[in-house]
Amino acid sequence: SNIRGYTLSQLTPLPEIMMPWSNYIMSNGGGVVSSTTHLLDFLEEPIPGVGTYDDFHTIDWVREKCKDRERHRKINAKKKESAWEFTKSLYDAWSGWLVVTLTGLASGALAGLIDIAADWLNDIKEGICLNAMWFNHEQCCWGSNETTFAERDKCPQWKSWAGLILGQEEGPGSYIMNYFMYIYWALSFAFLAVLLVKVFAPYACGSGIPEIKTILSGFIIRGYLGKWTLLIKTVTLVLAVASGLSLGKEGPLVHVACCCGNIFSYLFPKYSKNEAKKREVLSAASAAGVSVAFGAPIGGVLFSLEEVSYYFPLKTLWRSFFAALVAAFVLRSINPFGNSRLVLFYVEYHTPWYLFELIPFILLGVFGGLWGAFFIKANIAWCRRRKSTRFGKYPVLEVIFVAAITAVVAFPNPYTRQNTSELIKELFTDCGPLESSQLCQYRSQMNGSKAFVDASPNKPAGPGVYAAMWQLCLALIFKIIMTIFTFGLKVPAGLFIPSMAIGAIAGRIVGIAVEQLAYYHHDWLVFREWCEVGTDCITPGLYAMVGAAACLGGVTRMTVSLVVIVFELTGGLEYIVPLMAAVMTSKWVGDAFGREGIYEAHIRLNGYPFLDAKEEFTHTTLAREVMRPQRSDPPLAVLTQDDLTVEELQGIINETSYNGFPVIVSKESQRLVGFALRRDITIAIENARRKQEGILLTSRVYFTQHAPTLPADSPRPLKLRSILDMSPFTVTDHTPMEIVVDIFRKLGLRQCLVTHNGRLLGIITKKDILRHMAQMANQDPDNIMFN
Amino acid sequence: SNIRGYTLSQLTPLPEIMMPWSNYIMSNGGGVVSSTTHLLDFLEEPIPGVGTYDDFHTIDWVREKCKDRERHRKINAKKKESAWEFTKSLYDAWSGWLVVTLTGLASGALAGLIDIAADWLNDIKEGICLNAMWFNHEQCCWGSNETTFAERDKCPQWKSWAGLILGQEEGPGSYIMNYFMYIYWALSFAFLAVLLVKVFAPYACGSGIPEIKTILSGFIIRGYLGKWTLLIKTVTLVLAVASGLSLGKEGPLVHVACCCGNIFSYLFPKYSKNEAKKREVLSAASAAGVSVAFGAPIGGVLFSLEEVSYYFPLKTLWRSFFAALVAAFVLRSINPFGNSRLVLFYVEYHTPWYLFELIPFILLGVFGGLWGAFFIKANIAWCRRRKSTRFGKYPVLEVIFVAAITAVVAFPNPYTRQNTSELIKELFTDCGPLESSQLCQYRSQMNGSKAFVDASPNKPAGPGVYAAMWQLCLALIFKIIMTIFTFGLKVPAGLFIPSMAIGAIAGRIVGIAVEQLAYYHHDWLVFREWCEVGTDCITPGLYAMVGAAACLGGVTRMTVSLVVIVFELTGGLEYIVPLMAAVMTSKWVGDAFGREGIYEAHIRLNGYPFLDAKEEFTHTTLAREVMRPQRSDPPLAVLTQDDLTVEELQGIINETSYNGFPVIVSKESQRLVGFALRRDITIAIENARRKQEGILLTSRVYFTQHAPTLPADSPRPLKLRSILDMSPFTVTDHTPMEIVVDIFRKLGLRQCLVTHNGRLLGIITKKDILRHMAQMANQDPDNIMFN
């Protein structure tokens, strides 16, 4: 039932925004819109407006691609006429590269900006830099000579709020003051973020990836990738991240990059006027987005290919790669983290892993899969509740409430108080001799042998590690609960970082446990071979990374792209096998509870018309069971090719709500001639009555090449052949639906006519297919029970 | 004309092999074969043989996928019947992973074997290890304590042939003796290789990639990936590499991996009985092949995606990745080069590159593009000559002749005498203080400052470098000429390594030139900023790598996968921009001379029915201009659904040579019912006459659901509905060919029926499309001139 209504209400909670569009959709019935410009008679002028799309409609990939080839042919034909035309053709040929370059540059720059601003604003929650307000905590202390390396976070220039207001840094009073200021700032940022989103750009909320997937599959959502969305999303993303909510900036960065791609595509007519070509730019932009989000250009391209893109020709692969690289290089020159890396949590390990460790890695995979399945179910249930009850009407209050709880609970625990990216970095990093983290407070076994810096053999855990374990366990529970309620709030909110944090915490805990097990029981069979006392055999940081990948995999069900993204974070082929083992396990475990990833689940929740390329259609139904009209329906509304009058035609259009009508030879023969679109017919009749003289209500309408022979006194007939699509896709009524679904997916169709022995029987639209698939999925248990 | 005849004569020069198949093809006319098992009436038993393919026919992707889903449904339905059925369904579900794991294991093991064997056999040309014959030169000297590091290649255990036979290692006599033995061994290996190929497995010759592309696109070449081909290709590849011919093992390794994939797929009915599913395994296998050839698992997957695969669902992406990783790990455990790396020429650079250097990098790209275009034209011209003249009849003589010239010319020049992989390694490697190569004989500027080992500042070239430059120039010319004549010989021959060698030589020459320019003219504006005396600003090894990528890109027109492969060789994101600049330039320059890569050119030369997904169809023709029959042709051979007798049907089949026949309602209405295949009809009639009583020549044949009403005395009618494909693909006669081509590519069709207003007009087969595309390409100049 969600599919029918296209209720995007989660995105647009404001009734005044939702209403007109919702009405429009309702009136569309089996909604189909098409462009037929490639078949225009060349003698006639093209009618303005024919070949464009309404908002919230599906594009016709085949026609769009034909349009583009037609445009290309025209430019090529003119090329040799003059130097100016030649320059234009060059500009046209290069515009693809230009637009992806611009997109890459802008995405990289914006990502750098967001990183720096979020970092600064995040530190504002704790204190301020006295001599330079625009420095964050770390930058503030860089100039200080008074601190040692171990205490590099403490310097006189950086004042906590308690230090500034109360004049003292320590003591319960300052703790409470800092606690209060932390909550104050968190709430302010969250309030500002949700207010900006609500007032200026409702589309800026959420991660944006479900909508981008839908748009890339050929749906039109005007304004979703516009300049206002870009501006507000950039600003509110910084605020949302700084507010300390359990969310990440990685998903929204993809949305930001796609906005850049969409905006730049308006500079180039090749892309702005063709919805299919524009989607090539968007595919490249989403690769650039992931590239800057994770510092993984190749991973970004594979993400675009595996997760979001629908139509991905090889040319786009190449350009996506380029955009991802440009974005990565811009971000690296901005160097937002001061570590010459694209992400905060880049790590390098030096210890190999051992075969036995696959067991804990696979256990982490199981945990990731369970977490993913649980998260999807819980989050979707919560979001459905938000949509269906009155409670969803107060998004601002909800955000403030969640932000308040997050801030109150997060502050006391150092692992939840800090920035999630920094937490992940700390969990990923192996304990070296220079590491001052609580997680590395092992009891030293080597007396004074500090010279031997590179090796960090397994040691018994000290009290710091035990304390950290407890805090990590609490942080894990906190993150799990808060993330469920945070994803879906009306602020920009990514899911990658919280998921990774949850996995990293779990992984680190498992890693330390295995490490201690190996230390105390090194005579066990499993450890004896390779893990002697004094050797560095277990890397808890690697467990954290494997756990992070497993949890992210469980939630998103990404596979190759995820492994490649994490591989690019570590820079070593060595650890791909543990990663793959964990990600694969996580996917299989997750799939056992439901095959959808979180993005597909949100797409279905919002009822977008998205035909998933990954989901297999495995039923044995035939086209005639899905097509309309079914036996109980009214007969199919068809037009005859040469015996309707303008009045009759308008009557048919007004009586029905279909988006297009098959044209047949005659009522008797039912043989199919072509397909005409409601929108095109309306535009063409209006155009004719305005421009052509002698067109009356009684004028005969004909779709044939030559006018029919008419009585002498009849008014001038109206030729509508130019808007007739003379190559509609047809299948026979006996075609298995699996083939029909395949055709729709691969060719990007919106409708397909059904014939039997050459006679028109009915029509199947994309929506009919989605409805049928939903029906089949729900009815499956019944079917099996009846058998 | 090549397309029509499918003359594979280059591959199968033996008349007795070519003839029967060639005849078969000729008789096929508009050749189409299809499988329609999914529409079988369930009451009737499936007729054995229906749904299989003949050799050298194209598969029907849509039907194959339907068949697989049907099989899957059956297994799923039975799953809960018994524990045995459940185990079978588990086996079925896991067989995809099992087969790619096995393929990866086998490919890795074979690659390691080939590497070790080729290395040993290659050193046999120069001498022998006295105490252990099975050691190659390097291994032989490992155990020796008498040699210093600089002279690590010289040890008493290793005897050159002159040393062994004449008893002296130095002097003109030994030189001539070594020269002679070098030629002797080279000729022996080459002779043995070509003999084995000719006698046992003619398909083992060449690189195999053009054929694999064709097979993956849905063509059937029986035996091309069989066990004999695998065995002979593995053995002869070692011989061919060792013979010193200008060829590489990388392309053939892909063929070897695909053979493994094909052989293992026979263990699993899911893959052995379904041509479409089998191709998924082959896609994964080709990824594994590139993975072991270049030590680049991700590059391998992208190669499979970009270069060879046709149908690449996401599941295959994931399995390809797995196969590539398994293969890489097996190869790494074998460690054939003793450097813990997968390839000989793995390098790490430590110097950044500077913006100005993009100019020489782009120049290298231009060189690569020119080389690629020249190579393709020259090689294709030579191969065409080989095919069309009597000269192609003596493949053994040709190989021996080329091998003799190669050996004679190669021996005096150290850069051509050595193994090409080693040459590439030497050219890629930067000059460090431990490098003893002639290329690194710079005049030292630092007196005795040996302690400072890591920095290697730019220095003036010494006499060794000048000598090396001359030798490299000669080697470049030699390699260019020999590669043209070598690729296409009847021995396993890859193109990657020779192309990379040519690029690496050119790149190293340019690199040294720029380095010397920067040293002597460091006050020039371009150098002043960043290249002072005593700094290490130019890395000639990087130029070699960029040149290698550019040349490989020019020949194969790969883009992303090539960059990723080379990126995985260097292990640094740093150098992707120079690589991309060079590869892009090379592709554009190459495309200016002809858009085909070498593999597509060879596919066209051999006339395989391959519909390239990359090539755009840009003409404005309509389906009715391409379909047959055209006006001058005899009318379309059709069957009517219920008024033919067995005799008439057999008459139609015998009179025509088409592979399939449309079935219509009646001659008058011409309305389409379905499509029946020649092979299926023949099998069904034979089957009926054998098994059903009362079927005579006068029996009525009907394709309808119910038997037609017949006179009382007529013989029992024959129902053929089970072999009728009731969902043939149709397009209207007005459909632009660009859409038709798109449908054929995306859905993997073999034929499509053309209708007009519901009436059957004609048929378009894949071959018609290829013929039309060839016509359009040839006629283009005329068309423009007439306009």
From TrEMBL, chains A, B:
Protein family per UniProt: Belongs to the chloride channel (TC 2.A.49) family. ClC-3/CLCN3 subfamily.
Transmembrane stretches, start-end: 94-118, 182-204, 224-245, 252-269, 281-305, 354-376, 396-415, 468-489, 501-522, 542-567
Membrane disposition: Multi-pass membrane protein
Keywords: Antiport, ATP-binding, CBS domain, Cell membrane, Chloride, Endosome, Glycoprotein, Ion transport, Lysosome, Membrane, Nucleotide-binding, Repeat, Transmembrane, Transmembrane helix, Transport
Name of the featured protein: Chloride channel protein
This protein's record includes keyword Repeat: yes
InterPro entries for this protein: CBS_dom, CBS_dom_sf, Cl-channel_core, ClC, ClC3
Main location group: membrane
Source organism superkingdom: Eukaryota
Subcellular location: Cell membrane; Early endosome membrane; Late endosome membrane; Lysosome membrane
Gene Ontology CC terms, in alphabetical order: early endosome membrane; Golgi apparatus; late endosome membrane; lysosomal membrane; plasma membrane; synaptic vesicle
Molecular function per GO: ATP binding; chloride:proton antiporter activity; voltage-gated chloride channel activity
The keyword Transmembrane is assigned to this record: yes
Function summary: Strongly outwardly rectifying, electrogenic H(+)/Cl(-)exchanger which mediates the exchange of chloride ions against protons. The CLC channel family contains both chloride channels and proton-coupled anion transporters that exchange chloride or another anion for protons. The presence of conserved gating glutamate residues is typical for family members that function as antiporters.
Domain CBS: 627-693, 724-781
Classification via PROSITE patterns: CBS
